[in-house]
Amino acid sequence: MTKALRTALITAAAFFAGHIGITVLIAAWQFFSVSPGRGNEIDSYVMMLFIVVFSGTASAFAYAAITACSRGWRERRPSTVVIVSAVAGAIALVGTWVGLFVPALALLHAAFGSVAAIRVSTAVPGVVLGIVVLAWSLVAKPGDRAGST
Question: Which of 63, 73, 106, 130 is the most buried (most CB within 10 A)?
Fold first, then answer.
């Protein structure tokens, strides 16, 4: 396996983990804090996890595809790749909750129409954050690159 492919896979996995990590924590907290008088809401948790996993997968692949284009990103230490990608995944989830990516969706809708915008809307957080991290990797200090002292 080449270093570029390994970095892309690590990037996608860390983004995905950051993306679903918050949801799993919230779901676990809610599940274990259910009062005795309430019913079992396991179906709701399973549906919530399905939706987050679905959107997280699309965003993670988009994020990894964009960041993999940068030589500066591929040369980063694996620990930096994991940390930055996991934080980006968490930002993607919270940003989706608060509407951070609505302007990007509006641009997508204006450029390609509503059908295309709906089909790729789950990947938009990964695309936006991938572009941000790509720009960061181009201008970040070279001391964080693998093999540098």
Answer: 63
C-alpha to C-alpha distances, 59 to 20, 63, 77, nearest whole angstrom: 11, 6, 22
Neighbours of 5 (CB within 10 A): 11
pLDDT score at 12:
93
Provide the residue ranges of all domains of the chain, joining segments of one domain with +: 3-143
Residue located via tokens 């450029």: 111
Query: Residue 110's pLDDT band (boundaries 50, 70, 90)?
Result: confident
CA–CA separation, 105 and 86 (whole Å): 23
Burial pattern 91-113, b for ≥16 Cβ within 10 A else e, equals bbbebbeeebbeebbeebeeeee
> Is 66 in a helix, a strand, or coil?
helix
Mean pLDDT of 14-22: 92
